[in-house]
Amino acid sequence: MEGITYVDVGQGPVSLFVHGVGTSSHLWRNVIAELRDERRCVAIDLPAHGGSAVREDLSLPALAEAVEELCEHLGLSEVDLVANDTGGAVAQIFAVRHRARLRTLTLTNCDVHTNTPPEAFKPTVELAARGELAGLAALLLDRPELLTETAFGEGYERIEDPAALVEAYIRPILSKPDGGRAFERLLTGIDAKELVAIEPQLAVLTVPALVVWGTGDVFFDVSWARWLRDTLPGVREIVEIEGGRLFFPDERAGELVPHLRRFWAQP
């Protein structure tokens, strides 16, 4: 499992957390802080993010296999998988490929079916396609207040400490050799066809699933939560977080954790 970093704290049943593009395991720190005394919490840094190295293949299926590598490395045979943003797409591919690893699946606001990448994120992808995104992201290192004018400003309700998020999310990407270019390559390589292709497998995926969705998200409308409910036979319920945006698992962790506990306690 070369070049993959992760958080691994606590003891007990394993919760495995997967972030999306542009963030890292740091996204889950507040959720983990509430659960670490009762569960083993593992949060991956996907390739090119956090402390993880850049890889040649940064497609959604390749990212799903990085999650499988971590499970194999740590001997995780039964996990409660929780995912957000593009990590939700990764988790869906992981789930249909490695069903035996899963005890449950929880999806928060994330890429679903044809909404990959979402319309509101396409301007950022277009910057990446033109090779301009890395340079603009580098400006944030010295002017973190500009973070509110990026997609992060839409993903959070409030960014109280932009400098901390830049240090946690942006600097680790750009500090890698060719990390900015790799990130652009990752964004431009995300393709809805990867999720459309697994729809038949999702339709027979009976692993118990929970969908928790912020209703204030400009990227992933709550209609996609209902698509998951109607497609995945294992979905037990949809929980709506009123006004929650894409990154509500970070800034409103206290509202997510009780639903996770209740769901995981079900037989």
Give a description of the structure.
The protein is α/β, with parallel strands linked by helices and 267 residues long. It has a domain at 6-115 and 192-265: 3-Layer(aba) Sandwich (Rossmann fold). Helices cover 43% and strands 16% of the residues. It has helices at 29-35, 60-74, 86-97, 122-129, 133-142, 151-155, 162-174, 179-189, 193-197, 199-202, 223-231, 248-251, 253-265; strands at residues 6-9, 14-18, 40-44, 79-85, 102-110, 209-214, 235-241. The radius of gyration is 17 Å and the shape is globular.
Task: Tag the structure with descriptive keywords.
43% helix; 267 residues; 7 strands; 13 helices; Rossmann fold; seven-stranded mixed sheet; alpha/beta
What's the architecture of the domain at 6-115 and 192-265, going by CATH?
A: 3-Layer(aba) Sandwich
Low-confidence stretches: none
Order of helices and strands: EEHEHEHEHHHHHHHEHEHH
Residues in helix, %: 40-55%
Q: What structural class results from the helix and strand content?
A: alpha/beta
Terminal CA distance reads 33 Å
Count the E strands.
7
CATH class of the domain at 6-115 and 192-265: Alpha Beta
Task: Summarize the main sheet.
Answer: 7 strands, mixed
With strands numbered from the N-terminus, the spatial order across the biggest sheet is 1-3-2-4-5-6-7
Radius of gyration: 17 Å
Give the overall average pLDDT: 97
What is the CATH third-level topology name of the domain at 6-115 and 192-265?
Answer: Rossmann fold
Q: Hey, roughly how much beta strand do the residues contain? A: 15-25%
Shape: globular
Number of helices: 13
Assigned CATH superfamily of the domain at 6-115 and 192-265: Alpha/Beta hydrolase fold, catalytic domain
